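Lab notes, practical 5.
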Amino acid sequence: MAGRAHFGLSAIDTVPLHEKVYLELVRALMSGQFTPGQKLTSRKLAKELGTSDMPVRSAFMRLQALRALSPMPSGSVEVPVISADRFSQLTAVRTILEGSATELATTRVNGNNLRTIRRHSTELTLAARAGDIGDYLRKNYAFKFSIYRHCGNEQMIFLIETVWMQVGPFLRNLAMGFEDDLSSILDIDYHEEVVAAIEAQDGARARAAIVRDIDEGAAHILRQASFPGARR
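Output from the prediction step:
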């Protein structure tokens, strides 16, 4: 039987446009690119994304269902402003889910995965030293999810992402208190300890390091940021 012919063609990207738009907004929320209380309109985001309004409005509806965005009377949406109590509750959920995901991933990470995790760790350190909070948050998101996505549990990853969509905008407050030297944020950042534990295949130590990273970052935000009452 003759072998199958190959013509050097690239696979066609079949991901629907509305799904691409949704995933881009999810990424922006989780990596702290939007701020609490920020108003978002489908027209403005569609222009920035180079799409029509429809896929953006579709993404807005999905994100409202996940409590990542709040509807406004004008038809636009708002990045929610949450209470300190709700932030603390979400942090507690994070420590459980992300600690478990990190411990599970430690036994599943191979050489290529570990090189990716190390690279993201280095980029995270460099972003802090460069003093760019936006880039630091993007690198923080990339680093942590380069670990979590190897936990072997898709439902756990979905839950982690859902929580991150709610807390991500508040992570910009990590910069408060470090305005003169963002590199000092590394004093409450334990990503290097996480990498060392994964390299040693010590799941319990990796879990403890990621939990400490989450807890100390949240404690700093609660001390520095001004939280209004919860808005529903």
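Observations recorded by the TA: The first strand starts at residue 39 and ends at 40. Residues 72 and 78 are 7 Å apart (CA to CA).
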